[in-house]
C-alpha cells in the first residue's frame, strides 16, 4: 500500500514550456548528509536508480496543484513537478515540505515569489493583505483597476490571487455576470471581461480549478465573449453547446473520465480560441494553464489505456463487417484523436501506449479500414498509420513480413498504402505525398535494426523487392512503353515524380537489391523516356535518377548504360533543349562534367564514340571538348603502352620536397654507378634496360609530332620549343632536381632526401638544388615532355632551373648522343 501511495512521476519543464517525463518511481523524504538538509528522493521503480535528489530549501516556493501535483523551481529556468498516483501520498509529502519550511499544510503555496527591489519588497511585506472591493455593479470599475495594477508585480499578483481565492470571489463575479447579461449592461460586461482575463493571468491552479468546474466554466467563457475591442460579442457558448457535440462512440462507464474529457476540451478551446493571443510578456503568465491541459491529457490517455474492455470493444467494432459506415467513421476519428493525445506522452509512456494498441491488433484493423471505399475513413486511417510508422517503423515492418506468409501480395498492408498513393484523387496529390514519406521511412536502412540472429535490412528489403516493388513501379512502366510518355497530364507527372523520388532514394541506400531490379527490368531506359515530358520537373526527376546511378561509379551500372545506349535520350533531350540556359540544360551538362572530372573511362569512351557529332559544336562550355581530350588521352595510352610506362616512370620518380623512402626498384635505379654508363647511352629503369634506344624513342617521336598538330587545354602540355639540331637525335632523360641531372645514379653514399644534411640539395652542400623538372634534353636546351597538373605551382622554379643548368659541371650536364 505504501508503494502505491508514494508512486510518482517526475517531470521537468523544457525550453518550449512543455513537461518532460523523467520517469516513474517512489518518493521518500529523509536527511541527506551531503546536502546538509532534508531532501526529496525519487528512486526508479524499474531499476532503483536515483531519478531525483532535491533538498527542501526553506526559501523555495512549492505549489500544490490538483490534489496530486507538487510543483517548484530549483533555478531560474529549471521547474520540477511530482505527479502522485494517489492524493494521500501527495498530502504526506506536502506535509513534510511544509514542516521543513514551517508552513501550514492547508496552504497551496509555501512561499511568495519575489522579483522586486528590496524597497518595494519591504513596502509590500509590511502592508496588510489586499482588500477587494465589494462585488457589486457600481464597484466593477474599481476592481478592474485593482486587477490591472496588480499584474506587473509578482507580490501583488500573489496577494490578489489569495484574496480572490479565500473570499470565493469568482463565483460572486459570475453571478454578477449573469445579472449584467440579463440587463444588457454592456459597460459592466466589458469590465468583467478585463477582470476575468486578469484572473487568468494570475496563473494560479486553485483559481483554475474553480473556473473550470462544471458549474462555472460556461459562465467564464461567457465573460470572455465581451471583448471591448470587438463591436459585437463572440458566440463561444453557442458553439460549445449546439455545434460541438460529444460523441461516445464506445460508452464510457467511468464518470470521472467523461468529466475529464469534457473539461479538457473546453479548457483547450479557451486557450486556443477564447483568450486573446498573449503578448511576449504575458506568455509565461499562462504556463499553469498549459500544464493543466497537459496533465489532463496524460490522465485521459492513461485511463483509457487501462480500460481493456473499452479498447477491446473499440477494435471489435472497427473490424466488424456489420458496423455501418457512419459508426465506423466515428470509431476511426476517435482512434485518430486518441493517437493525437498520445503525442503529449513522453517516450516511455508512448512506447507502452503503442505496445498496447499493437497487442489489441491496430495494424490488422487499419488494413481492413484502408480497404474500404470511404475517402474520409481512409484519410483518418492514414493519419493513424503515420503515427505508428513515425514512432516505431520496425513494428510495422515485422507485421508486414509476417502477413506476407499468409496473404496474397494484393492485400498486403504495404501494397494497400502504395495503391492509395497511386490512386490519390487530389489534384495536388496531398495524400500521395504523405504516403510516399511513410514508405520512405519504412525503406530507410538508417532506422532498421540489426541483431545477432537476424538483420532487418536484409529481410525487409528482400521482402519488399519481391512482393511490393512491382506495385510501386507499375505506373512508371505503364506510361513509358513508347518513346514519349503515354499520359503527360499534370497529375500523372506529379505521381511519376513522386515514384522517381522514391526510386532515387532506393538507388542511394539499397545498393544490391535496386541494382538487380534496375538492370533486370531495364528501369533506367523507361525512366529516361520521361525526359521527353512537357513538364520540366518530371524530366529533371528522370535526370536526377540517372545522375545518382552515374554518381555511384559502379561498373555494373556503367556496362548496363553502354550496352543499352542510355545516354542517347539524354543527348537527344539536350539537343531539343537547344541553347536555352535553364535548369534542364545545367543538369545535363553537370552530368557530363561529372563523367569528365571523375575520369570515368568507360563512359567517356562511350559518349565520345557514339555522340561526339551531336555535341562537338557546343562551345559555350568546355565540358564536351574536355571529354574528347580525355578520350584521346586514353587512346594514346592504349596505342602506346611504352609511352604509358614512360609516364608512370616520370610520375613516380619526380623530386619531392617532403622526405620519403624510395622503393627497392627505385633504389636500384638511382644507385647505378654513372661510370658504368657510356657517354650518350640512354638511361632507362631496370625493367626496360633490354630495350633498344630506338624502340624507346619511337613512341616519343610520334607523340611529339601528334601534339604539334593539336591545341590542348593545359592538361598535358608539350613544350612549345621545337627540337633543333640533328635529324634523328637519341634522347637522354634527365632530372634537374639535384646536382645529377641525368638518370645516372649519384654515389651510393649520397642521399636523395632534400632535407638531409650534406646531401646535394641541402643548404650546406656546394651546389644549390634546382626545382624538379622532367624533360627531354638536347644540346640546344630543355624541351618539356610532360607537364602534370600538380606542377602548376612549380613552373616558375622550373624556369630558374633551366637558366642555371649551364653552370653545372660538364660531366653533370645532360647529354645528347647521336
Give a brief rundown of this model.
This protein is an alpha+beta fold and 818 residues long.
Describe this structure in words.
The protein is of the alpha+beta class. Among the domains are: 2-99, Roll (PH-domain like); 137-243, no CATH class; 295-551, Leucine-rich Repeat Variant (Alpha Horseshoe); 552-639, no CATH class. It has 35 helices and ten strands. A hairpin with a 4-residue loop joins strand 2 (19-32) and strand 3 (37-44). It is elongated and about 105 Å long. The termini are far apart. Residues 703-718 have a biased composition (Basic and acidic residues). This is Serine/threonine-protein phosphatase 4 regulatory subunit 3. GO terms for molecular function: protein phosphatase activator activity.
Fold topology:
Blueprint (H helix, E strand, L loop, with lengths): L1 H4 L1 E7 L5 E14 L4 E8 L5 E6 L6 E4 L3 E7 L2 E7 L2 H15 L16 H9 L13 H11 L3 H13 L2 H15 L2 H16 L3 H7 L5 H7 L12 H8 L11 H20 L12 H20 L1 H12 L5 H18 L4 H14 L1 H9 L4 H17 L1 H12 L8 H10 L7 H14 L12 H12 L1 H10 L11 H20 L1 H11 L1 H6 L7 H16 L3 H9 L4 H10 L5 H15 L3 H15 L7 H17 L1 H12 L11 H7 L22 H16 L24 E3 L38 E5 L2 E4 L10 H9 L15
Antiparallel strand pairs: 1-2, 1-7, 2-3, 3-4, 5-6, 6-7, 8-9, 9-10
Tell me what portion of residues adopts beta-strand conformation: 5-15%
CATH architectural designation of the domain at 295-551: Alpha Horseshoe
Q: Uncertain runs with pLDDT below 50, 5 residues or more?
A: 113-127, 653-662, 672-696, 711-818
Superfamily (CATH H level) name of the domain at 295-551: Leucine-rich Repeat Variant
Strands of the widest sheet, in order across it, are 4-3-2-1-7-6-5
Shape: elongated
GO cellular component, one term: nucleoplasm
Biased composition (Basic and acidic residues): 703-718
Domain PP4R3 EVH1-like: 5-101
Family: Belongs to the SMEK family.
